[in-house]
Specification:
By secondary structure, this protein is mainly α. It is built from 10 helices and no strands.
């Protein structure tokens, strides 16, 4: 805890978000043995260090590592540190979804398995509808991006059907989540390529 306090003070002195992320990436390896020990003990013990490391892993792009902690923290109801206004399930769902949306907006790809694991881990936990909508929106966008109109097959059509279901759920949860344009695109593609698969 003393080490975390010192590291938090260092981070507070930095204004640049990018510089903060860089410092977090440098600091994280020192916490790995502690995290490993808590997770392998599996007794529901936890403190600010564990959930802070989870948040830092999300910030630095180590989403799989963050979800390893979430898989432990969520069933035990471990809270986020006081400086967070959102609960742990909400932070996990919303921040992973945001990482996906940011990557896609920049023209990149995102690992669908990470989103599916996030959805599975947070499925039974309470959170604002807007946060869960963001997760469904990200899943819908990933499935839509994976569709290749130059090579339409059964798997491609299935991705479109999945995208439609995820986007519909996002809109149902939060009408202004930004899914409607993608939904129009998916519906047009499904109409255009109906009967082409296989």
């Amino acid at each position: 805890m003393a080490q975390l306090h010192q590291d938090m003070l260092r981070l507070k002195q930095i204004q640049s978000i990018q510089a903060k992320v860089q410092l977090k990436a440098e600091l994280l390896p020192a916490y790995a043995p502690y995290v490993e020990g808590v997770l392998s003990a599996g007794k529901g013990a936890g403190d600010e260090v564990l959930t802070t490391v989870m948040a830092w892993r999300i910030d630095t792009g180590d989403l799989a590592g963050a979800l390893d902690i979430a898989e432990y923290a969520l069933p035990y109801g471990l809270p986020m540190p006081d400086r967070f206004t959102r609960g742990t399930p909400c932070v996990v769902a919303e921040e992973v979804a945001q990482a996906a949306l940011t990557a896609l907006k920049a023209g990149g790809d995102f690992d669908r398995a990470i989103l599916l694991r996030t959805a599975e881990l947070t499925a039974t936990h309470d959170m604002p509808d807007e946060a869960r909508a963001k997760l469904h929106l990200a899943l819908g966008k990933v499935d839509l991006k994976a569709f290749n109109p130059e090579h339409v097959d059964a798997a491609g059509i299935e991705r479109l059907v999945n995208a439609k279901a995820q986007l519909a759920r996002a809109i149902e949860l939060h009408d202004k989540c930004g899914a409607k344009k993608d939904m129009d695109t998916v519906e047009k593609l499904l109409k255009k390529h109906a009967g082409e698969a296989g």
